[in-house]
Design a protein that fits this description.
mainly alpha; 0% strand
Length: 260
Amino acid sequence: MLVSLGGVLTTVRGLNTFVERHLSYLVSFSAGTFFIVALSLSQEAFEFSASDLLASLTLVAGAAFVFAIGHFMPETHHHHEVADAADVHDAPSARRILWGDALHNLGDGLLLAPAFIVDVRLGMAAAVGVLVHETIQEISEFFVLRQGGYSTRQALVRNFAVSSTVLIGIVLGFALSSVHLFLGPLLGLAAGAFFFVVLSDLIPRSVAASNNVREHIIHAFAGLLGALLMIGVNYISGHEHADEIDPHSIEHIGKEMHID
């Protein structure tokens, strides 16, 4: 929610152009972080699911769900880059993006909750990945809202209000994850969704933004840096493998959180 206020940085003289010009490199960095997060979540999905087949199906379902949302509501995922400068965003378009972002944030909360249920450290690693991606998303939307006719204050207030839907997703996600039967499938859905975002959106955008070999190398380095960051987060946090976690502790999480 605080990241949704990041657009204010672009109002600083000289920083606006710099941020917009280098936003595509942050997309590559985000791809690297998301890929490692998705790998971690998929590993836990196989550990907590009743069977490997079920885990595989939930990964596919997560990817299919994001595909369907993106197809029917393309405003849920928008990156405003220099290459999009020719696009004109009016007020109705900006409002649709706000509604789409509300749904996107709700999904973030729903998908992050099972990661925290399994291990707080895995949840923090996933949150860092989402945080990097959301920084790009919110700055992009700030550009769009400003182009759609909103003032700086109006754009920031609306972005912050819309970001609060993540709280609804978090409550719903924890309620579902407290039922042990749903934990594995939710992890699989989250992993599939993250893999799809990386492979169908982030990486293609990075490739499209590269105009020469030098830029391809910079994008590849940014992605590698993001991946190394998440590997470092996992290493420093000492994330336990799922088979090292006491299953009885998971059963008591719902009671500790007063969730039936």
